[in-house]
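subagent[fold] <- orchestrator: predict structure for attached chain, return tokens only, no commentary.
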Amino acid sequence: MLNVVIYSLKALLTSLWVLAILGLLSLSPLPADYQLYAFTLAGVALLVHFIEFFSMKAKFKKQSGLAMNFVQTMLWGFGYWLPILKRSKKQVD
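subagent[fold] -> orchestrator:
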């Protein structure tokens, strides 16, 4: 079930990033009225992922022994780091 949520989140975020990039290039399929909403949502997602990166960085390093990737965290959020933590926890058990 968690995998479905993570893959769905990644698909939605990929769609959001594509729409935001296309909007910046003036190639967006969205009407101009909805462009602002896509940009606002992308900005909020980036801000949340930025906060998430710094709040989870130490815990991630402690539990997995790996350094957290900034770009992947900014793109996918917990869809990037949660599966890694789950796998490292299973290996410890």
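orchestrator: received. Logging for downstream: The chain is about 85% helix and 0% strand. The chain has a mean pLDDT of 91.
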